[in-house]
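debug: dumping io for the single-chain case to check the tokenizer round-trip. Nothing else runs in this session.
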Amino acid sequence: MKVSDNLVHIQKRIDKVCNKIGRNSNEVKIIAVTKYVSIERAAEAIEAGINHLGENRDDGLVSKYETLGNKSVWHFIGSLQTRKVKNIIDIADYIHSLDRISLADEIQKRASQIMKCLIQVNVVGEESKHGLSPEEALMFVQALREKNYDKIEIAGLMTMAPYTDDVSLIRKCFKGLKDLQQQIQEMDIPSMPCTELSMGMSNDYEIAIEEGATMIRIGTALVGNES
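debug: decoded output
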């Protein structure tokens, strides 16, 4: 299917959820995850009106940026090795996977302007997933505050829910991230507005929106999978 057709279907579902819970659907940014598709398919997504693209790997982000450039807001959404920060620091508008001080140090060292970062949180403690526990995330926030970086803004939090049919467990994950966001916002740290919640993918984005997602990361349902 065309990306534009998929987008119409997804937007209708987003609108329906938002109408049900009294949210404005404009509050929800759709990030097209283009990891498994070609540059041409990513360009089709932009043509369809999607202006946020997400990549999991530094080489994927670089190759698509070289062709598509500033036609998109670029999100790095995969686990980021410290040594690869230099490859994406002048390309990414958002990094969704900040999870350690060594990575923050490297971003601070390499960034020429303020980098919007999201702290990656493993809310329900899945061993197969990266990210800090909510308790570790709060300690990490304190450590970031003490470092007083001037090139890092904590724009929000990111999580991935378990891949399961258990809706209650998925909802628990998203609720936990929302609760953590509120705790961080109550700390009132100027460099940490923490307004974004990046959560929800092709299989669970409607639940994520119900629980406060401001960014949903959609791959297969939107741009497909060409790999």
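debug: round-trip ok. The CA atoms of residues 45 and 102 lie 34 Å apart.
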